[in-house]
Write a structure and sequence with these properties.
Elements: H1 2-25, H2 43-55, H3 65-79, E1 85-93, E2 96-105, E3 112-118, H4 129-148, E4 156-162, H5 176-186, E5 191-198, E6 228-233, H6 237-249, E7 255-260, H7 272-276, E8 282-286, H8 308-324
Parallel strand pairs: 3-4, 3-5, 5-8, 6-7
Antiparallel strand pairs: 1-2, 2-4, 6-8
């Protein structure tokens, strides 16, 4: 009798684990797809973008308007070289003007996929290589590929560099992504999906280099920080699954995903949450930020800490996502 009870408890435990695994990890089966030469990512371009942004002094934030505008002007200059419709979304906060930079492909389509990253940094003395020059470099390279490839688009793709994601405007209506998301809602835009590229350049092969926001997650995920993650809420299982699938098939990097309740604050820490607030589907693609990168919001967040080989693969995967994603 005792043996049956023990076996029953074990069986229930295994069943609960499988249920949690399916709900949280959202497992997929994917097959790698070859990338044609005309859609190859330039690691040199990624390095060049990150170098320029991290060399801006003082730090490119809301308090240093001239530096922030220098970053904006660099992004505008790069995007102006691409065959996209370029738009500057200007808005005012405390009598200062700030700008979202939007590069649109396939403007004939109403259904839109957004790939965005913020170009400001957290306060002063912060180069912001991973947070978030890495994300900006990634979206610029995706925009270049969209411009140079012969890809037949199925929907509009908006590549957006946001301003004011960081404090003191974080989670306020002054965030560039909130300004944009509210405008999309007010103008009844058909947003298929928004993808936030939030820190995509830091990886480690050291054991136990990956940390987690709650205990027990190490039973579901690797403890070596050598993967990229797709993050969403429980109700975002389908878009998370789609992004995970295309990110996996289009790149040579391990991809894991997390679906969690929005009460877990760590899943809300980027521009994608602005679109959640307006009722749009959105996910975050991230190296998990401070859960692995000890340089987060520190003067040590420098170019030499980034893994450009893996960052190149993430960028390759993001291109695959925005061009292949289904409804």
């Amino acid at each position: 009798m005792i043996k049956k009870v023990i076996l029953g408890i074990i069986a229930i435990g295994l069943l609960m684990y499988c249920i949690v695994f399916a709900l949280v990890r959202n497992p997929i089966i994917s097959t790698k797809e070859s990338t044609s030469p005309e859609t190859s990512i330039s690691q040199n371009n990624l390095k060049s973008h990150v170098n320029f942004l991290t060399d801006i002094t003082p730090s490119r934030n809301a308090h240093n308007i001239e530096s922030l505008n220098k970053a904006r002007d660099y992004i505008v200059k790069e995007m102006s070289n691409y065959s996209c419709e370029l738009e500057l979304q200007n808005y005012t906060v405390d009598e200062n003007e700030y700008t979202n930079v939007i590069c649109s492909f396939g403007a004939q389509f109403s259904e839109t996929v957004i790939l965005g990253a913020h170009y400001d940094v957290h306060y002063d003395n912060n180069p912001g290589a991973d947070d978030n020059a890495s994300g900006v470099a990634g979206i610029l390279e995706v925009a270049r590929l969209l411009s140079e490839s012969n890809q037949q688009l199925k929907h509009r793709i908006d590549i957006i560099a946001y301003t004011l994601e960081e404090l003191p405007h974080f989670k306020s209506d002054s965030m560039g992504s909130r300004v944009h998301a509210k405008n999309m809602k007010q103008t009844n835009r058909d947003i298929k999906l928004m993808i936030s590229a939030e820190m995509i350049g830091y990886f480690s092969d050291e054991k136990n280099s990956q940390k987690f926001p709650i205990p027990g997650m190490n039973l579901l995920y690797p403890t070596t920080a050598d993967f990229i993650a797709v993050i969403g809420r429980f109700q975002d299982r389908q878009p998370v699954r789609q992004v995970k699938k295309h990110l996996s098939t289009g790149s040579d990097i391990d991809v894991y995903s997390l679906n969690a309740p929005s009460k877990l604050q760590e899943i809300t820490f980027s521009d994608h949450a602005s679109y959640w607030g307006e009722g749009f589907d959105a996910v975050m693609v991230t190296d998990t930020s401070f859960m692995r990168n000890q340089n987060y919001h520190e003067p040590t967040d420098t170019v030499d800490t980034l893994d450009f080989t893996r960052m190149t693969e993430v960028t390759r995967g993001l291109y695959h996502v925005v061009t292949k994603i289904e409804k």
